[in-house]
Amino acid sequence: MKRGVFDLLRRGFDNTIANWQVTALRIAELVVMIGVTIGAIIIIVLPILVSIGIDAANFTSPDELEEIVTTLATKWLLLLWIFLGVSVLLFVWMLVHSFIEAGSARVFVDADRVAGPELTGPRSRYRVFSMERFMAGAKDGWWTVFWIYNLVWGVGFLLALLPLIPTLAGVFVLRDNQVAAGMAGCFGMIATLLFMIPILVISAIWCNRAIVDWATRREGAAESIRAAWRQLKSDFGRHILTAAAMFVVSFAGSMFFSSFSMFASFGEAMGGNDGMILAMTLPLRMLISLVNSVFSTVIASWFVATYAALATDPHR
After folding, report:
1. Nearest-CA neighbor of 133 among 119, 113, 150, 148?
2. pLDDT higher than threshold 90 for residue 182
3. How many domains does the chain have?
């Protein structure tokens, strides 16, 4: 008998807690990448803004932001430099994330196998983490996971943007009638957004399953992606229900932490743009944002561990 959705979620949760070191490494990755991003902004963007006479600390309205964008639009070499810098940063981020993700998937798959097929038992039976095991998986699979991300999300984004083609065509055909062209553009953007949401959700599920399939079978990116798609089609119910549970928990947690951020904004709302109010609430907002990011990282680990239980189900 196949494992039920709640059994999969419980196994994934126990696996995540027992191997908490994996989540700690993912949180460390998050902190490092935030630091690298801030450093890149300081090194790449701020000198450019200063060189063209823009003080980024002083813009507080949309009009001033529009002025910055307009000014940069006339400096295409600077825009090219920013684009290259952002591209390199994203490339490095993807490599680092693929490294961490490969090690995480290997640990979670190995842990679920060691725990055995029994649906009940102590949480300690999942405890297999070691730095050697994690690094072995990371070194073995980082390049494969990198290509899984690029291929799956590349296909997903291409499909998600398909409604833009008839939208642009409609706007072009109706270009002489501004009202009709505007309505066609608005309806097209709404249709694109509604079409994009399920496509990106399926892409997230497909990508996560492909990474777990790599950790399970040790095959290449293309083989893992094809195997993941076959499993997704043949067992769509369990894949979508476990993912839906993850999304609901993640959304609920984000709303919970956002409520604290809203409370922190009350002082600003009462005191206007007073610098003292902003300075007093900034640490609290930063702390809430950090806690929310940590919570999201825990959910991401739980998602991988749950799909590890799904991939290693002896009755699948």
Report:
1. 113
2. no
3. 1
Q: Which domain holds residue 90?
A: 5-311
Tokens coding 19? 């191997």
pLDDT in tens, 237-248: 999 999 999 999
Cβ neighbours for 298, distance < 8 A, ≥ 6 positions apart: 16, 23
- Helix H or strand E encompassing 97: helix 76-115
Global pTM reads: 0.82
Q: Is there a domain that residue 31 lies in?
A: yes
Spatial CA neighbour of 31 closest among 277, 289, 255, 226: 289
Q: Tally the residues of the chain.
A: 316
Amino acid at 257: F
Q: CA–CA separation, 30 vs 27, rounded Å?
A: 5
What residues have CB less than 8 Å from 68, skipping those under 6 apart? 49, 54, 56, 59
Find the distance separating the first CA and the last CA of the chain, reported in whole Å.
8
Residue 53 placed within a domain:
yes
